[in-house]
Amino acid sequence: MKQKFYSLKNILAKNAQYNVIFGERSNGKTYAVLKHGIEQNVKTGKQMAIVRRWGDDFKGKRGAVMFDALVANDEIARLTNGEWTSVYYYASRWYFCKYDEKDKRIVSELPFAYGFSITAAEHDKSTSYPNITTVLFDEFLSRQGYVQDEFILFMNTLSTIIRNRRDVTIFMLGNTVNKYCPYFAEMGLKHVKEMKPGSIDVYHYGESDLSVAVEYTKPNKQGKESDLYFAFDNPKLSMITGGTWEIAIYPHLPERYTPGEVIFKYYIVFDNDTLECEIVNKHKYMFTYIHRKTTPIKDAERKVVFSPDFSPYPNHHRKINRPCDKVTEKIAWFLSNDKVYYSENEVGEIVMNYLKWCGKV
């Protein structure tokens, strides 16, 4: 059966300023937005911004091949009514081009798209881009970690592009590699973790006209032809083949223990999740066991709590990897020596993302 690729039709119907789209890899999300940007350019002359985290994402072949799939499918020729057949990339700009009978390249006078990296936002502040009305931030979800104050850097990049206008539509695309994402918290997208494939949630913000549409794309029932290469019995690969959230395998409890063998408890609060961490002494060895806590922390001001949030309490700390006394040194020892076990893989994901946050602050 013919493979069905992702379409922007449903999310565009929400008429939101921000369109957050995530799902399985290689299902056509980026293709659809790039095509949409070209369609807008052909119809109105308006341009597109392609935003990535790092400037290296545009260097050399990474930038040159951005539109190769559309060129291979003759979309450029079709959308421009045959005026252009290919795309030429130079200095973070994309131009339409074609080749004459002598194979000489003819390039359009103006670019239809510009590249921006959020880590270089300071360098673009003095430049104006009044014709950009479509913004694509690709790969906004990351499993490797985020740069410091990334959301603010992204907002600064958008401010440079948008200036004093209200005609810009923003697309944020990602694969389901990590549901613990700072953008979700910073944008108030509180229900992403509970979303089902194929659903679209729309968020509104007080009395403003701002709206954010969030779509968890529906997986292709027929699958992709490339799924053959990822058919290993490995749950991490389901993100590629089915669009489920990628979750690593973490060590589980090696041996049962009694409440009397718990010698110390501390807590991690991260991304609206509260974890109880128990240091267990089994006489022969010691380890830390981490599980969810579904009730409030009793006497929270007196307990050792690690959280990105600021707190005046002396037992509350932000970074578990930077011990400041004997107690936090002993806590950090278990983490640095891999003597930690988790009640479920999801709990391991929370701790992993918290530790990444600690490393970036």
Which terms summarize this structure?
single chain, 361 residues, alpha/beta, Rossmann fold, 2 domains, 10-stranded mixed β-sheet, 6-stranded mixed β-sheet, 11 helices, 16 strands
Briefly, what is this?
The protein is an alpha/beta fold. It contains 11 helices and 16 strands.
Report on the structure:
24% of the residues lie in helices and 24% in strands. With 361 residues, it is an alpha/beta fold. The protein has two domains: 9-241, 3-Layer(aba) Sandwich (Rossmann fold); 259-360, no CATH class. The strands form two sheets. Strands 1, 2, 3, 4, 5, 6, 7, 8, 9 and 10 form a ten-stranded mixed β-sheet that branches. Strands 15-14-11-12-13-16 form a six-stranded mixed β-sheet. The longest helix has 16 residues, at 29-44. It is elongated and about 85 Å long. The relative contact order is 0.13. The model has no long low-confidence stretch (mean pLDDT 90).
Question: What's the total helix number?
Answer: 11
Low-pLDDT ranges: none
Biggest sheet overview:
10 strands, mixed
The helical percent reads 10-25%
CATH top-level class of the largest domain: Alpha Beta
Strand content range: 15-25%
- The CATH level-2 architecture of the largest domain is identified as 3-Layer(aba) Sandwich
Shape: elongated
CATH topology description of the largest domain: Rossmann fold
Q: How many domains, in number, for the residues?
A: 2
The CATH homologous superfamily name of the largest domain equals P-loop containing nucleotide triphosphate hydrolases
Report Rg.
Answer: 24 Å
Backbone structural class: alpha/beta
Query: Secondary-structure element order, as H and E?
Result: HEHEHHHEEEEHEHEHEEHEEEEEHEH
Instruction: Compute the number of strand runs.
Output: 16
Distance between the termini: 49 Å
Q: Determine the mean pLDDT.
A: 90
